[in-house]
Amino acid sequence: MAWSNIFLQLITGAGPVIGEGLLEGWETSIELESFEWGCDYERSHDKSGGGLAGGLTGAVSGALGLSGKNIKMNPLKMTKRFDIASSQIHFCVDRNLPVLSASLTVLNIKHGGRAIHEPGFTLVATDGYFRDVELTLSPSGNAVEVKEVINLEFKSIVITYLKRVGKDSVPTNPCFYTAPDV
């Protein structure tokens, strides 16, 4: 039995990262305890131009999405147990190797006649790198577990949710964003 319903599949500059997933179908994936991600959106009004010409310039720039828009994607923060995948993640941090793709899946746990675990939420981050990895000791009963908090910076993200309609899972419209080159 898996201890989580959140699974990560990583492809780095050193190749795929193999995890220790315990759930059937996810054996080579990395089990996550938790994750968090967000983005900040700021929009400012262009105050540089005055009068009719400045107003028209601001309106046209705004309509084209050229002025005052700023979306900053925060890193994808993942918490996991220290496992076989940890050595390859640390290798990538030490060598500053890229993360080509990080695919995170949260399974819907279903009880009944159909498949017990079905993908419900997916987040795919591409073109990134590990910003940092922090190790912590966490008490667990009479023992102590080593846990990792991994921060992944990336340039592109796609989020999809599979909505349950009757007996079938139907994908909703994906949310995607690619950061502009700075």
Note down, in words, how this protein is organized.
The protein is built from two helices and eleven strands, in the order E-E-E-E-H-E-E-H-E-E-E-E-E. The chain is mainly β and 182 residues long. The strands form two sheets. Strands 1-3-6-9-8-7 form a six-stranded antiparallel β-barrel. It has a two-stranded antiparallel sheet with strand order 4-5. The protein is globular, with a radius of gyration of 21 Å.
Keywords:
2 helices; 6-stranded antiparallel β-barrel; two-stranded antiparallel sheet; 182 residues; mainly beta; globular; 14% helix; 55% strand
Spatial separation of the terminal alpha carbons: 45 Å
Strand content: over 45%
Strand order of the largest sheet: 1-3-6-9-8-7
Sequence of secondary-structure elements: EEEEHEEHEEEEE
Q: What characterizes the major β-sheet?
A: 6 strands, antiparallel, barrel
Helix content: 10-25%
User: Please, how many helices?
Assistant: 2
